[in-house]
Predict the structure.
Amino acid sequence: MDKTKEIATKQGLNRLLLFTETGEGACNMACQYCFLGKAGSNQKMTVEILHKAIDFLNLYAVGQPSLHFFGTEPLKNWDLIVAAREYTNMMISLTTNGVALTKERIDWMDNNNVKVYILSLDGGEEHNANRILRNNTPSWEVVSKNAQLLLQSPKQRSWVTARGTWSGHDYDLVGRFGELEGLGFPSVQVVPDVTGSFERDKVKDAYLELGEYYAWGATPSKFVNDMVQRVMDEENAKQEGNKCGTGRGIWAVSPDGSLSLCQLYEESTVGKIGDIWNGITSEMPFAAISERVNTYHTDINPYPKPECEGCTAYKHCQGVGWCAGINRQVNGDELVAPDGYCEHLIGMVEACRIWADKQRGRLPKPRAGILGHLYGRG
Amino acid sequence: MKLRRGETKVGYLTGDGGTVERGVVLGMVQGKTLAEGKEIVSGYEKVTETVWIDKRGEPQAISHDPSVVSISIKPGNAEERQRELLDELKAGLEAISKDDASLDDIRRALAAQIAYSEFMELVND
């Protein structure tokens, strides 16, 4: 069998993450915490390379193929999104910062089945502190207005998630959720930027305030709800294992057509695996990175950091701290999660234990008899 | 690692678990009366001995019962060895990804890749 087909099948390739522009000036924003350096000469993907990437995916995808326009800011190269839809019927989605969203573009996406899956924005003052335009001006005003335009589309509203980034100098989670929900987002994820520092006690307090805000019930965040549910039945919760999955299912394509394990390795040669013309030409990253990160929290490598052994949140630790690439950027090793990750996780788990207790208190009291056993909590 | 069936022969098990070849037992009973022969043989258990070999043809296990249809073994300290090999492979990949990578770095990285592939082939065989 064709080597690329063999590897694509083994890794379950079904999606390409497209970087339509990279290097200096590739994004219309200059967010403080972006994991991309966006340095060096500017490169834009051509329509020919886009078509070749789609051909590559059609040839090697396992199951339903899909394209996700990811970086650096897809709407900056709108013509490529249109060109992709003209060339293929496969599912197309994107992650955007929302700056270049317009009513016309939203209408076009609605009519052409292009889905905005992720709109990155932080909410209010915190947004303006980190998410600034390239001319150094705050972006909340323009992005919040465009977000509301997007949410006027029933289609886009049904699948879009507001993704906020939470850096450790601000612990006002309630304010962040309030701002994003206030815009009308039904789904909100506030994801900690674990490259920075977090203090577990402050994290715990922030989640407890959030719990109180939502009356210890469900939030618009799957991330938070899932953790509360795990902790509700902590004894029977399974070890989280590795949730990173770099190299599995989704590969990143650069403007020059080169392929990387995922978006975190797009700017680094260490995770380059080949290109859309020749397929996989370097298998080494699949073993040295993908397989290696899969040894995390297994018999092979149960405690990547000495303090993992006695960690109160160990059972809920998501493998390499969500992201092997971030770990490498911070610590030089995919297996060593930044301290910020551990501090956030411990604070969150401790808060969710209290949250779960409060939630149990909201459930009906156990009832007597067989129905009590079936429907009560006895 | 799944072993392959190798040579099969008839042998005689001693009380302490050792095996005596058929030819040796035959020599012991040669020239003896039937009763004496039976007496000698009663100290042994006749078995069909099968040698199980790995993909390189090296013997890895022996069975004494024809009802054994397959044997799988796991190399000792497999997890520890896999971790070591993956760490070496990662170090090799990092080294060859640098602009100033030397021929020696490339050689070491390729050797690490081969060592890991061979080991996993052995484990998953």
In short: The longest strand of chain A covers residues 114-120. The CA atoms of residues 300 and 312 of chain A lie 21 Å apart. DSSP finds 14 helices and twelve strands in chain A. Residues 339-362 of chain A form the longest helix (24 residues).
